[in-house]
Amino acid sequence: MKNVILGVAASALLFVGSAAQANQELATKNACMSCHQLAVKVVGPAYKDVANKYKGDPEAAAKLAEKVKAGGSGVWGPIPMPPNANVSDEDVKALVDWILSLAD
Ligand code: HEC
Asked: Which protein residue's CA is at the shortest distance from atom 20 of ligand 1?
């Protein structure tokens, strides 16, 4: 019985792990990671900082999806994010949901 529970817990962890991995791959594929990292600011803000900033904001996912598509500046500093118009809406949504899930 104990083994069954452990097995279920382990596969749940594996599942969460691989979903996060897939999203990071999506971010890498779409060149997001050339300006962003998970926990440190590079050219753009750390994704963890983005998640913490918008924690509890029900509009955040929609606002950020639009910002990723159109680009823009002024929230984190003067450096602009260029538009990412070539990234599909579906991918943008998956990326933003993943970023917002990184809050502490
Ligand atoms: C050329 C560098 C660059 C690339 C490539 C880039 N970003 Fe950004 N990103 C930035 C900068 C700079 C900012 C800060 C903009 C600001 O201060 O308003 C930013 C901000 C953000 C924010 C926070 C926006 C806000 O208003 O708080 C999110 C979310 C984000 N980027 C996601 C992405 C995703 C997803 C991708 C890939 C599709 C991506 N970025 C690609 C530079 C980049």
From this structure: 44
Provide the residue-wise pLDDT of the chain in tens; the chain has 104 residues.
667 766 666 666 666 677 788 899 999 999 999 999 999 999 999 999 999 999 999 999 999 999 999 999 999 999 999 999 999 999 999 999 999 999 99
- Residue 41: closest CA among 16, 89, 75: 75
Identify the residues whose C-beta falls under 6 Å from ligand 1: 30-32, 34-36, 43-45, 50, 64, 67-68, 72-77, 79, 81-82, 84, 87, 95, 99
Residue type, 19: A
Ligand 1 atom closest to Cα of residue 73: 18
Both tokens of residue 13? 């962890």
